[in-house]
Design a protein that fits this description.
The chain is α/β, with parallel strands linked by helices. The protein starts with a helix and ends with a helix. The chain has two domains: 134 residues, Aspartate Aminotransferase, domain 1 (Alpha-Beta Complex); 255 residues, Aspartate Aminotransferase, domain 2 (3-Layer(aba) Sandwich). A seven-stranded mixed beta sheet has the order 2-8-7-6-5-3-4, sandwiched between helices. Strands 11-12-15-14 form a four-stranded antiparallel beta sheet, with helices on one face. 40% of the residues lie in helices and 15% in strands. Bound molecules: ligand 7TS.
Length: 408
Amino acid sequence: MSLDLNNIRKDFPALQRETSAGVPLVYLDSTATSQKPLAVIGAMNDFYRHSNANIHRGVHTLAEEATALYEGAREKVAAFINAPSARQIIYTRNTTESINLVAHTWARANLKAGERILLTEMEHHSNLVPWQILQTERGVELDFIPVTEDGLLDLDAYKTLLARTPKLVAFTQMSNVLGTINPAAEMIRLAHQAGAIALVDGAQSVPHFRVDVQALDADFLAFSAHKMCGPTGVGVLYGKEDLLESMPPFLGGGDMIKEVKLRSFKPNSLPYKFEAGTPAIAEAVGLGAAVDYLTEVGMDHIAAHEHEITEYALERLEEIPGVKLFGPSADKKGGVAAFTLEGVHPHDVAQILDRDGIAVRAGHHCAQPLHEKFGIPATSRASFYLYNTKAEVDLLANGIYKVKELFG
Ligand code: 7TS
């Protein structure tokens, strides 16, 4: 099951570089964005060198090639998450836009004042603020599944909150801070039983383990290419076909229409109804290449490798006096280790680690309410992907010991 790390690391040019400090890069920030393999960089390069044209609107060779590549990538994405049809794959800019699309269209068409949306306390701001905007505009009510001290969702509280009959349950499949992998299939089953639909924020799950929308029975799934070895600028919204069909369009303009009169328009069929204007074509091609790359390495192998690295990282960090880790044990989480170091600000930890080439993120990681819940303004966060090694975890642990020395 183990990955050939030597060869995998060779696929990522950025991992070969040194930082400004003149030391090899130890990239432990894939939760923010992953590095990109040559296969993705090459596919985008090839697109611009050979096939660049706008899509869906030309009969010339390049336009047909560009359209085939763009639509081919959609087919790959559909297969990757086991969507019944590529018509259910909407290209967006990122997870954030995918969630906003649902908030603007499905929610505005379906939710009235006083109706409820159920979220969790561990959500990224991208799965909070769109619903808060709706709360202000529409008077919908928000409820939150609490997070327990050990970083899990309180599922008994979830069942109680479902009794308030929310119309939508929207939650992250994996926390970008705690690393917690939530029992999505069970949560969706309970949501459906209570008459709600379920939106899954897959920003941190789709890149790291096999996600099957049919097995989950998810109504919506949102994710970003840039966290799964693909480029920035393109993301995905998957939706059940009947929901997508029933939803009004999101943005208006080119490509999302069938017919336009001076005072009216007829929307295009799926998925184009939600794709207004010239999209990120090369980026979609890059996403297709990323899906091919991840599939070739194997999502189960990637998940197993990350589990091994995370288990080791938690072990190494736990043994450092003054380090406090957040989130559950390795068996319940993905490759994220958020921590505080007693007496040292998380930003100082990150800055000093950077001197040794170690890239971690510090801050609230766009999950301010979660940090507030734990009574802290910020954490330092190391995160792991298919290309990280145990040797890098050792460098991180040594780096933290150095920080401790520096701060006495
Ligand atoms: N949802 C989750 C769970 C995330 O982790 C992120 C990004 C998003 C949504 C938003 O994704 P975007 O591609 O639309 O920006 N998380 C992080 C992070 O943890 N550090 O930087 C970005």
